[in-house]
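Hi R.,

Here's the input for the iron/sulfur cluster complex you asked about:
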Amino acid sequence: MLDSSPAPRGPSVHRSVYVHVPFCRHRCGYCDFTLVAGRDDLADRYLAALDRELDRVAPPTPGGRVELDTLFLGGGTPTRLTSPQLDRLFAAVFRRYRLAEGAEVSVEANPSDVTPELVDCLADAGVNRVSLGVQSFDADALKVLERDHAPADVPRVLETVRRRIENISLDLIYAVPGHDLAGWEATLDAALALEPTHLSTYGLTFEKGTAFWSRRRKGELISPPEESERAMYAAAMDRPAAAGFRQYELSSHARPGSECRHNRAYWCGDDFEAFGPGAANLLGGVRRMNHRGVLGWLRRVEAGEPPWIEEETLDPEERARELVMLNLRRVEGVVSDDFARRTGSAVDDLLGDDLVEQRRRGLVESDEAGVRLTRDGRFVADGVMAAFL
Ligand code: SF4
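And here is the predicted structure with iron/sulfur cluster in place:
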């Protein structure tokens, strides 16, 4: 039986906040994120609306601001904002929140935007982690992905960031059409040679509605064969490990101590608040999804309406199953004690025969400590999670 008592709401000592910054120079053909391309003219309206959205949750309170353990600016491209605009964004956040001692403040950055002035602006605001959208060290793959930097730019970019911020993650994409395992291994090696603290490695997906999705249907883009993609994922796990990184999530690899605390909080199932178009909140079992259109979100906030267009209260079983999905992304998987503390139930009881079946197929393993994907299971993680829904 699942405990039906609601989880406590209200301020907790440490919180995680995500701010979505929806601006990009150009929409890359594979991207289905919430953003506007070539509409930097909306930035000031966005910042004013963000201020209003923040007010709904946490009005400015100089004395009693909630303490944040992690703050993450994602996008879109946060570094598309000018330094004065970024200053304004941080000021709006820090009128409502203050950083806990040792808090992690991450910003996603496009390599083309990185200048010493930008890095000073970020570091002065308290940013201590930068996630660079490097994607590939193959010039042709970057062209396919419609990115606007060259592989040769990346060492200089890292050097510029490192003058003030040492914790640097590189985002990389594999299974780019026309690119093989050898090319992906070369990208991994080039990334590792630059000694980042963290790597995120994603397989390219073709989301319905994107330009890539249409181009694949027309035969203009052809994904690598499945076995090749599998070998690329294996390389994404093994090459960073050989260089001293530890995989701690399906796509995330870190030097010990450099795991992304913001994302870890999310995969642990901790509450978080999120602001901006398309942002999703989860607080006390209530999930709210902001309007996914940038203009739609702007209009709602400017009209004094709630920014969210969907609100769902998860029942105890839904919350428990969602927690399984999030936890299984982590290499340590579902930790029995923590799961029982958060949900009031035992994970084996919840998953029942489905767990037995996935274990029989060799895709998960379980013991007293908990339930986790096996190495084989990581290759088909989405399917395993779907079986537990
Ligand atoms: S830069 Fe990133 S967020 Fe912007 S369109 Fe390209 S992939 Fe999407």
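One thing worth noting: The pocket of iron/sulfur cluster is lined by residues 24, 27-28, 31, 33, 35, 75-77, 110, 133 (CB under 6 Å).

Cheers,
M.
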